[in-house]
């Protein structure tokens, strides 16, 4: 059992050791048609979440993001992106109200999501941590290896590393 656990932990570490790449630029609207641009957050750590309003994992993760927002305040910027094939301004507004979200929730037709995920099969939630220089430091798919990111303290640990200038 211990060998299996060690193997899983090593596999998780290997999978999270990711090559740096520049975050694709974007300019997307929220439900009120206010446009947000990644360039507006240069110099700040951005937590970029792709989600669906009917996803139970996304709903649970909204609480984790709320805690992160409380902990880090103005040191970070959280941005959620709903994919328009699944959501619209009505479902997004209901989600924002239901989860007391005060960070931007943007609408994407799918092109922006694809430029980050590099795959047509989107899984939700999916989180990217972008450093102040616009480089993707972490890409967290929601699976067994990232359970602590989506349900525990793993997201805060990754943010701490990025804020400290470490990988």
Describe this structure in words.
A hairpin with a 5-residue loop joins β2 (27-29) and β3. This protein starts with a helix and ends with a helix. Mean pLDDT is 89; it is low at 3-16. The strands form 2 sheets. The protein has a 6-stranded mixed β-sheet with strand order 1-8-7-4-5-6. The chain has a two-stranded antiparallel ribbon with strand order 2-3. The protein is an alpha/beta fold and 167 residues long. It has 6 helices and 8 strands; from the N terminus they run αββββαβαβαββαα. It is 38% helix and 23% strand. It has one domain (2-163): Glutaredoxin, CATH 3.40.30.10.
Largest pleated sheet: 6 strands, mixed
Shape: globular
Strand order of the largest sheet: 1-8-7-4-5-6
The overall pLDDT, averaged over residues, is 89
Number of domains: 1
CATH superfamily: Glutaredoxin
What structural class results from the helix and strand content?
A: alpha/beta
- By DSSP (H or I, 4+ residues per run), the number of helices equals 6
**CATH-scheme architecture:** 3-Layer(aba) Sandwich
List low-pLDDT spans. Answer: 3-16
How much is the radius of gyration in Å?
Answer: 16 Å
What is the CATH third-level topology name? Glutaredoxin
Q: End-to-end span in angstroms?
A: 30 Å
In CATH's first tier, which class applies? Answer: Alpha Beta
Following the backbone from N to C, one meets helices and strands in this order, namely HEEEEHEHEHEEHH
The helix fraction, in percent, is 25-40%
The portion of residues forming beta strands comes to: 15-25%
């Amino acid at each position: 059992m211990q060998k299996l656990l060690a193997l899983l932990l090593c596999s998780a570490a290997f999978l999270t050791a990711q090559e740096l790449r520049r975050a694709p630029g974007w300019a997307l609207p929220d439900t009120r048609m206010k446009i947000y641009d990644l360039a507006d957050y240069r110099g700040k750590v951005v937590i970029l979440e792709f989600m669906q309003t009917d996803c139970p994992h996304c709903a649970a993760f909204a609480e984790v993001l709320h805690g992160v927002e409380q902990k880090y305040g103005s040191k970070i910027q959280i941005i959620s992106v709903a994919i328009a094939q699944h959501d619209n301004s009505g479902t997004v507004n209901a989600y924002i109200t239901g989860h007391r979200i005060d960070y931007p929730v943007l609408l994407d037709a799918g092109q922006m999501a694809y430029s980050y995920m590099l795959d047509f099969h989107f899984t939700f939630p999916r989180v990217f941590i972008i450093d102040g220089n616009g480089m993707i430091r972490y890409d967290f798919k929601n699976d067994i290896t990232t359970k602590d990111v989506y349900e525990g303290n793993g997201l805060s640990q990754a943010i701490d590393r990025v804020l400290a200038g470490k990988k």
